[in-house]
Write a structure and sequence with these properties.
mainly alpha; Growth Hormone, Chain: A
């Protein structure tokens, strides 16, 4: 099945698997982190952080999609990778400087990161999707990403319990940055080919 998927779409799927696995290592237990590890932290604080992240993500996403042009898949990959690097830095920030301030900064930067990546990567997926294979490709996407997310959620609880939240955030940063590798591999395998969407 994987051999029948457009290589660009395949790179996107595996990148997404690492991206969402890293996010799900921490996001399901972020409220526990806030309440147990941060002074004056509460469930309400955690909820506000998620709201802040979503608002920033929407605003930045609209801004990026309206003002930045993505004429080629290569530039879409670079833009997505930029957002992922920023998010990895965000994980490290909260790991090294745990406080309510960095918690809010974490969600602001996360919103910016998602806002940068999403307008670039989702069109890349849809523009290169074979319509005749659309259902199978989406099923493959779900199978790979949700499996990674499910494993990450379970591991996140184990890692936080046995090794602490700092270790968890550092591992999330590493897993997230690995999500750039599928793009890097694709670009190196096809660097002499000019079949990137939009490139001449």
């Amino acid at each position: 099945m994987l051999r029948k998927i457009n290589p660009i779409v395949l790179a996107f799927i595996f990148s997404e698997a690492f991206f969402w696995s890293a996010w799900n290592l921490v996001s399901p237990i972020i409220a526990v982190y806030v309440v147990s590890a941060l002074p004056n932290g509460s469930v309400q604080t955690a909820a506000f952080g998620f709201t802040l992240y979503l608002l920033v993500r929407v605003i930045v996403g609209l801004f990026v999609s309206n003002l930045i042009s993505f004429p080629s898949d290569r530039k879409r990959m670079v833009t997505d990778a930029t957002g992922m690097v920023l998010l990895s830095c965000c994980y490290l920030l909260i790991a090294l400087i745990p406080s309510l301030l960095t918690f809010y900064i974490f969600f602001i930067i996360a919103g910016i990161s998602f806002g940068i990546s999403s307008p670039a990567k989702y069109p890349m997926f849809s523009l290169n999707l074979n319509r005749q294979q659309a259902s199978k490709t989406w099923s493959t996407y779900d199978a790979i990403t949700f499996t990674g997310m499910g494993i990450a959620i379970a591991l996140g609880g184990v890692i936080a319990t046995k090794f602490g939240f700092k270790t968890l955030f550092v591992i999330s940063s590493i897993v997230n940055i690995i999500g750039i590798l599928p793009y890097w591999i694709y670009n190196n395998l096809h660097k002499d080919h000019k079949h990137f969407n939009g490139e001449k």
